[in-house]
Amino acid sequence: LRNVRERCSLGVLPHRAGDTDLSEMDVFLMIRRHKTTIFTDAKESTTVYELKRIVEGILKRPPEDQRLYKDDQMLEDSKTLGDCGFTSQTARPQAPATVGLAFRVNDEMFEQLHIEAFSSPPELPDVMKPQDSGSTANEQAVQ
């Protein structure tokens, strides 16, 4: 339970797909669509379809109404995340891999893949910028 709480506090969902094989390595993913970002983890052996089931549990859209992408390449349901290039080396907790998500808009069409860029933080105020190594913040304030 503590691990689940820690993972939730980090913004990582407590759902883990394919937990049956403990020798498999975890991959950490950001599933992104427009301004929505889902952080999750799975095993390299998890299929793309299983990842769509995770998305279904969160966004309430069935797998057949989803398309997942790596870069601009659509991922096949039957392939594993490892087959698609998501490994413990390329999708780490501190640098999760990005998976694009597009939804079906009608019986025949899917929306174009669109991911909003993250906003940039404002510039640091002068008092928070790193100081010269030769003087302290107090010395600079006195000068």
UniProtKB/TrEMBL annotation:
Residue ranges of the region described as Disordered: 118-143
Domain of life (superkingdom): Eukaryota
Domain Ubiquitin-like positions: 25-90
Record pathway: Protein modification; protein ubiquitination
Pfam families documented for this protein: ubiquitin
GO cellular component, one term: elongin complex
Keyword Nucleus recorded: yes
Alphabetical UniProt keywords: Acetylation, Elongation factor, Nucleus, Phosphoprotein, Protein biosynthesis, Transcription, Transcription regulation, Ubl conjugation pathway
SUPFAM superfamilies to which the protein is assigned, alphabetical: Ubiquitin-like
Gene Ontology biological process terms from the UniProt entry: transcription elongation by RNA polymerase II
Locations listed in the record: Nucleus
Residue stretches of biased makeup (Polar residues): 132-143
GO molecular function, one term: translation elongation factor activity
Role: SIII, also known as elongin, is a general transcription elongation factor that increases the RNA polymerase II transcription elongation past template-encoded arresting sites. Subunit A is transcriptionally active and its transcription activity is strongly enhanced by binding to the dimeric complex of the SIII regulatory subunits B and C (elongin BC complex).
Protein family per UniProt: Belongs to the Elongin B family.
Subunit structure: Heterotrimer of an A (ELOA, ELOA2 or ELOA3P), ELOB and ELOC subunit. The elongin BC complex interacts with EPOP; leading to recruit the elongin BC complex to Polycomb group (PcG) target genes, thereby restricting excessive activity of the PRC2/EED-EZH2 complex.
Name of the protein: Elongin-B
